[in-house]
Design goal:
Elements (H helix, E strand, L loop, with lengths): L1 E5 L4 H14 L5 E5 L13 H17 L5 E12 L2 E12 L4 E5 L3 E2 L2 H8 L4 H9 L9 H6 L6 H17 L5
Parallel strand pairs: 1-2, 1-3
Antiparallel strand pairs: 3-4, 4-5, 4-6
Length: 175
């Protein structure tokens, strides 16, 4: 059995990690350790802070659990495009040989009112709850769940990028 350390206790991010490892390594058995991790970036990362946060979280959990077989971190953030903001997450995974693979989710633009809340200093999770009248949406379907009428939820949104990063790690000789 191989050990995977997940840089989060958020149920969505934990589920994503478990599903991604099961999909990419179907013949392996894993045990998972979930820990809160330090990102070293603001609670609402912007632009390159998102990737930096994912890599910082990865290094943090590697130091906390150096004997694991794999480590995975997922950092959601916002990116600017002129006056618009869009959401995109960065995924970083590493194996015990030190190979780091990265991927990003698809991006989606935020509605104008959400952008106003964020420009006023409100973090996306809180802004989304305020906009949709929800509670703790980031531990559930996420903004993407509401914006797509439930067709894509936050787990599915993060899952593809996690599978891509893990596939790169699995086939690291190609990279």
């Amino acid at each position: 059995m191989k050990t995977v350390v997940i840089a989060s206790t958020n149920p969505v991010k934990v589920e994503v990690a478990k599903r991604a490892f099961a999909a990419v390594f179907p013949n392996e058995e894993f045990s998972f350790i979930e820990i809160k991790s330090e990102s070293g970036v603001p609670d609402q990362p912007m632009d390159e802070e998102t990737r930096k946060g994912a890599l910082n979280r990865l290094r943090y959990i590697q130091k906390k659990h150096p004997d694991a077989d794999f480590w995975i971190s997922q950092e959601g953030g916002l990116h600017t495009d002129g006056d618009a903001l869009f959401n995109q997450a960065c995924i970083a995974v590493s194996d015990k040989n030190g190979f780091i693979a990265e991927s990003k989710t698809a991006q989606f633009f935020l509605p104008k009112q959400l952008m106003r809340y964020i420009k006023d200093g409100v973090e996306l999770g809180e802004a989304t709850d305020k906009f949709f009248g929800s509670v703790n949406l980031k531990h559930g379907v996420g903004a993407i769940g509401h914006l797509t009428d439930g067709i894509i939820n936050r787990t599915e949104y993060y899952l593809q990028a996690s599978v891509i990063a893990l596939s790169e790690l699995k086939h690291k000789e190609w990279y």
